[in-house]
């Protein structure tokens, strides 16, 4: 048994992944550095290179961890949606949570979180090592979104889902360009109009 597969090693590796995921969400790819991750995890600097072959491996683990947590939250919310209100508003909120992240209640923080999310998505294109993972995560997200629409009484085809996601993305990007303090509200309006 190597140190990385002992219970202590697994805890340390998990702490590093979680720390890297938080840094990624807070500051994008540039925030994920060996020293920053180790400090956030409360572990020695050498632990990042001990448990990960490269910074790319650590970033990949962080992206996967964060995305899987968001997908799990979405699945839990979908189960709640199936037993409660399944109106357009509930559907729009859940879809936007999956595409833009959940709202915190702080308008400025939410707008910043959406901006950082889109910066990360665009920056992923410059990281070929993430492409296989992003294809897998995108397929899982699309499956979840398709299920959300189906359970909400608005089943969509693969093509229609692609159009709705593009509609949200376009609304958000336009709002970010216009320095709109509520990119989520702009996306909500567009999605509600499309589903009406």
Automatic annotation (TrEMBL):
What PANTHER family does this protein's entry cite?
HTH-TYPE TRANSCRIPTIONAL REGULATOR RUTR, TRANSCRIPTIONAL REGULATORY PROTEIN (PROBABLY DEOR-FAMILY)-RELATED
Alphabetically, the GO molecular function entries are:
DNA-binding transcription factor activity; transcription cis-regulatory region binding
Q: Which residues bind DNA?
A: 33-52
Q: Which UniProt keywords apply?
A: DNA-binding
Which species is listed as the source?
Amycolatopsis vancoresmycina DSM 44592
Instruction: Please state every residue range assigned to the domain named HTH tetR-type.
Output: 10-70
PROSITE patterns, per database record: HTH_TETR_2
Per its record, how is this protein called by name? Answer: TetR family transcriptional regulator
């Amino acid at each position: 048994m190597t140190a990385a597969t002992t219970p202590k090693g697994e805890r340390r590796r998990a702490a590093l992944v979680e720390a890297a995921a938080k840094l990624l969400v807070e500051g994008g790819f540039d925030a994920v550095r060996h020293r920053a991750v180790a400090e956030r995890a409360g572990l020695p600097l050498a632990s990042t290179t001990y448990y990960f072959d490269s910074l790319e491996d650590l970033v990949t683990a962080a992206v996967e961890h964060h995305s899987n947590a968001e997908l799990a939250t979405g699945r839990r919310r979908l189960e709640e949606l199936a037993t409660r209100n399944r109106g357009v508003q509930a559907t729009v909120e859940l879809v936007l949570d999956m595409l833009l992240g959940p709202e915190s209640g702080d308008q400025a923080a939410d707008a910043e979180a959406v901006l950082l999310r889109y910066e990360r998505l665009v920056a992923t294109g410059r990281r070929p090592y993430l492409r296989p993972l992003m294809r897998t995560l995108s397929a899982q997200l699309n499956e979840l979104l398709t299920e959300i629409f189906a359970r909400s009484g608005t089943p969509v085809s693969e093509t229609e889902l692609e159009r709705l996601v593009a509609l949200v993305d376009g609304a958000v990007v336009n709002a970010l360009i216009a320095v709109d303090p509520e990119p989520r509200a702009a996306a909500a309006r567009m999605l509600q109009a499309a589903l009406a």
